[in-house]
Amino acid sequence: MYTYEMAPIFNFMEQKIFQFFQQNYLNWNNIDGILSPGNTQSLYYALECARHKYFPQSKKEGMKNLPKMSIFTSNTCINNVKKGCVYLGFGIESLVLLPTDKQGRIIPSEFEKALQKREKEKYFSLFLNLSMGTNLFGSIDYIEECTRIAQKYNVWVHLEGGMYQKGDFLKNIDSISIQIDKLFSVPQQCCIFLNKYENLLSEANALNSDYLFMKDKVTYDAQKYDSGDKTFQCARHIDILKFWIYLKKYGIKGIYQLLDNSIQTAKSRSQLCVFLIFFRSNFRIKKQGLGAYLYDSGDFYFGEWEDDRIQGEGILFFAFGGFIHGFFLNFMIHGPAFLKFSNGEIYEGNWNQGKLDGEAYNYFVDENIWFKGNYSQGKFTQLIQYGKGRPPSTILNQLSKINSLCQKHKTKNENLSIKVIDFKDGSQYLGMAKQKNPFGLGLLRRLDEKYDAGFAFNGIFQNIARLNLDDGQNMYIGQLQANGKFQGQGVYLNKKTKQWVFGIFENGQLIEVINQGQDEYPQNIISNIYYSHHINSGRFIEKQIENGLFYMPSGYNNNYKNFQQLKWDSFRIEKMRENTFSQNKKIQINVKRNSSAKLQQNNSILNIDQNTYSNRSPKSTLYQFYLSN
């Protein structure tokens, strides 16, 4: 469509839709607009209209006699504004990126400071780009406050309306782009650009070509209905028909209901991450507050974060049993901590940047003995005391109960928040919950101290999860259907034989084998399952909930590939992980069972009561732990 003769009905449709928005939302005295391929081209139209309004001579003379311009936008915006500066000849130096708050909204006071600074530098303040639904956070800029400042300095205000809402403040903006395809799921492309200056688009673009846009048309308003002359490209697709059909099918109330349904769906299923935050693989929002995080390695962290680091108190559950409950500093154990591993061994003490420092207790489950010793920067220096049974440590008294962490980060949203739920059978759930029901990413801590983790809805793991089966002897990691049965891609792993099968499951049954192996954890396959399940795109995805953050599985990310790179802690125990770290220093503690009933430790021979070993067997056990170089 480009002239009235070529598409009369569709030109009428456009004008009717423009009037609909003018009367019901914008409250402008006049309106002009065009349907464009998308939000980026709508922004180009806005920049061009602003320039023509203030400098109409630019259509003939170009930019050579114009002052240097200032174009303001958010520092979290996508690159369409920068492209517009290049495309329309302003240059990237004209772009001013404004500071934003934690929700990604332009700070009005910072906008005014930037205005004043640029005007002192002899720049002409031309254009302010605001958003009603930022790409990064879905936030709405402080439109009314920023518009008031812009009017004070006579700056054109353009609003990107990816998420649209009604408000009296809209009457003071100069232009808006409304992304119909995003709002109402109308097939792409369908985006409307509107401004409140009648015929401004034509004045900026029209060349009145006699072969097409003849001046002797008297049966209709050629300037109004020959829309091709006010565009960049002249001929356009008939995008308006898509929206018109939707309006005819659903009606105005039905369109509102579609929008309400979309909002409610986003709220109720926000933990499924239906909205990807951003598309740059090297871009990550910092984790902050209380969060649950499932790594593709199977490890699960529940606790505090600060500036994208594990920092504060939390619990790290290991994929194949055991956990660390304590304080962390920059991913390392720092402060009091309690370590328990799958074989029952316990380490309790204080750590200094990942290394045991001061008095610490060690408990060996096979021997049922403990010893208390002194450590200095991770090195054992002195044996102080030993005994039979569990150690009399007080470290656990220095640690918070998990429930208190949730209270510390309590949110206003009591209906959906991070919680700890204790069940009657003694098991415990840590993660997202809806009232008292697991609902979202979480971990089920079982009585046998193994754990299941994944997405729970109404108390059932579904969507994707890692589950212990057959008393923990086998494990399934993969996709699930709504009733919790295996459905889609998954890995079935036997912990004892270390045999695994990767395949396609249907209604709980394996129907196709894709790959299989033994003696290794199929890390890459499991990572790809997370990746392909659209939960993320190789980076973490998060949903902010009041003061805390709720984290999804990380997917495959080289920065989180294994413990050595992640540096959770500098103190590592061999039985904790199957990974080997060849460059680490090794210290050995030998506990030898023999007829003389003596404990040998670092060449020191210490007498132990004969009764300590009344039930021992004549074999030697080697305990190794590693300290980082």
UniProtKB/TrEMBL annotation:
<dbReference type="InterPro" id="IPR002129">
    <property type="entry name" value="PyrdxlP-dep_de-COase"/>
</dbReference>
<keyword id="KW-0663">Pyridoxal phosphate</keyword>
<keyword id="KW-0456">Lyase</keyword>
<dbReference type="GO" id="GO:0005737">
    <property type="term" value="C:cytoplasm"/>
</dbReference>
<dbReference type="InterPro" id="IPR015424">
    <property type="entry name" value="PyrdxlP-dep_Trfase"/>
</dbReference>
<dbReference type="InterPro" id="IPR015421">
    <property type="entry name" value="PyrdxlP-dep_Trfase_major"/>
</dbReference>
<dbReference type="GO" id="GO:0019752">
    <property type="term" value="P:carboxylic acid metabolic process"/>
</dbReference>
<keyword id="KW-0210">Decarboxylase</keyword>
<dbReference type="InterPro" id="IPR003409">
    <property type="entry name" value="MORN"/>
</dbReference>
<dbReference type="Pfam" id="PF02493">
    <property type="entry name" value="MORN"/>
</dbReference>
<comment type="similarity">
    <text>Belongs to the group II decarboxylase family.</text>
</comment>
<dbReference type="Pfam" id="PF00282">
    <property type="entry name" value="Pyridoxal_deC"/>
</dbReference>
<keyword id="KW-0677">Repeat</keyword>
<dbReference type="GO" id="GO:0030170">
    <property type="term" value="F:pyridoxal phosphate binding"/>
</dbReference>
<protein>
    <submittedName>
        <fullName>Uncharacterized protein</fullName>
    </submittedName>
</protein>
<dbReference type="GO" id="GO:0016831">
    <property type="term" value="F:carboxy-lyase activity"/>
</dbReference>
